[in-house]
Every structure is written in C-alpha cells, then in structure tokens.
Amino acid sequence: MSLSRIVTLDEFIIHRQKDFPYASGELTGLLRDIGVAAKIVNREVNKAGLVGIIGRAKSENATGDEVQKLDLFANDKLIECLKNSGECAGIASEEDEDFIPLTPIDGKESKYLVVFDPLDGSSNIDVNVSVGTIFGIYRRVSDMSGPCTKEDFLQKGGQLVAAGYVLYGTSTILVYSTGRGVNGFTLDPSIGEFCLSHRDIRIPERGNYYSVNQGYYLKFDVEMRRYIDHCSDMNLRLRYIGSMVSDIHRILFQGGIFLYPNTRKYPHGKLRLVYECNPLSFIVEQAGGKAITCQLQRILELDVNHLHQRESIAIGSPAMVDEMRDFVERYSAAPSFR
Ligand code: AFP
Question: I need a labelling partner for 114 at 20 to 30 A (CA). Which of 228, 277, 298, 308 fits?
Fold first, then answer.
C-alpha cells in the first residue's frame, strides 16, 4: 500500500485482512468497532474540562481504585460498540468485577473476546495529562454452541490474536498489532479518521529514559533498587507519567524501560495482567522489545488465574530489559545485600 496518499485505519485493516487467507472479516470488524469507540471516547476526553463531565463518581471499581466519570463513560461506550457489532462473544473490563457474555446478533456466535482498560491513567484526567484505552483480543476456547466462559478470559497473553491502545494525548493515536508488526494511526480531526502515521514501529535497542515511581524506591527489593541506582548512575532521564500507556508510547518511539516492581503494599506488583500488562507486552514484543516480571518470567507466558490479577513488570527496549535481568540475577543471588 502506497504511503503517498492518506491511508485510513479502515482501509489498512481491510487491506491487512488479505494477509490471513481464511479470515472471515470478524477480526477486521472488531478492530474497526474499537476504532469507532475510540473516536467517541476521544471526543469526550477532549471536552472533559468544558462540560464538567470529570469528577469523582463516588464509587470504586473491581480492583478497589477510585473511579472517575470519564472511566465509566469510556467503559460504557466500548461495551455499547462491541455489543452492537455482533463480532464479539464477550468482554472483560477493568471497571467490571466479572466478564460480560454478549448475546449473539442474528444467532451468529462470534469467536472473539475483548479485554480492555477503558481509560488507563485516569487519575490524570483532572489535570489534562494523557490517558489511554488498552485492549486485547482473544479467540475463544469454550464450546461455540453456548455463551463464553471464564476460561476464555484466562488465556495467557501469548494467545492474544491482536492488541493495541489508543492514546488521548497532544494528538490521538491508535497503535495496534495482529502479530505481524505494529502500526500507528493518528486521528485527523478535520476528517474524523485515524490515518496511518507510523508504519512498522520498531523499538530502539536502548534509550535514554527510565520510568518508575521512584517515590516507592525504599519499598522495592534490593535488586530493583540496584538497577534503579544503575539507571541513575548512567545519567538516564527519569520520566514517569503515572499513565502506563503514555510511558510505553514514549518508550516505543524513543527507547527506554518502564518498571512497576512489586512493593510491600503490592507484593505481586500493582498493574493488571489481563488488560494492562499482556496487551502492552504483546505490542512491545511485536515491536522488538521485551517484557518480563521483576522475578524474570516472560509476561506473555504467565498463567492467568484471575481477571484482575496483578503482576510486576519491566518492559521496553530489549537491551535494557536484559540489563535489568542481569541485575536481578546478580543481586537476588547475594543474600548479604538484602
Ligand atoms: P489509574 O488508571 O488508576 O490512574 O492507574 C494508572 C496505572 O494503572 C498505570 O497506568 C500507571 O503507570 C500506574 O497505575 C501508576 O501507579 P502509581 O501511582 O502507584 O505509580
């Protein structure tokens, strides 16, 4: 496909469908529906300060975090778009305790499921800092003659068929992969379309940035503290937005490493495996990067026991994740340093 003219997201995904000889068009439809939902969420995110839609909704989500109205709006819009599309058998969201099976349209059972964090980094909304939607798509493993089951959602990240995110930042960009590289589409507000802007994204081997909530430094294991000291010794620049999707977006283009280690408060890590770590690890690996836990297991190979499971994570440029691995191996093998 020539880049000499504008290529819209719809054109691109239809064109890419031809790469999959037995494709039925369902996945293509699903990706387009997510694109539509993203445009609706984007519209509201952009005018959040104007219409007073932001503010606390006085409720807690399934993982105990404070919920803001825009999270609920984004959640509702995604669910609505996926429900009406008929291309999705069920969904699991950060905002809902349990998964939601969807009723087939015209009796046609879909083979795909979608997991998502409707608005990652939502504690940033009040202060106009970038937030994003993260999504992952799985093929269901349960019997197609009935509704989807929990097992469908407890698949390892390595089973993802597609994943992506939408970043509502200085411009709105949708980045996705179906396992054949990563491409980015910027929303052109003048025509209301996502247009191909970043073809075949490759993460730099290393970068000058590290991202970690350094405020928790004393609560990290010694090996993580040693690695963070090393980043500082190397004069790397610390950038931590408090919105993982925004930090990962920067790292995809400029290189670097993002860390959310286990702490005393979160002994298994804080970030959610199903709809944060797995989809973003899929994207980063597809772009040539790496993603492991702070105990050195590859994120995409982790067992999933719970929809809202938390894990520690180190993700980003391959050489930097390898370096962090070396620190963990060296210092966790030396009990005297603890
Ligand atoms: P929110 O969506 O509740 O703002 O959480 C964002 C997040 O899941 C991730 O995007 C951030 O990197 C991380 O949590 C920030 O957590 P800390 O405030 O503990 O650093």
Answer: 298
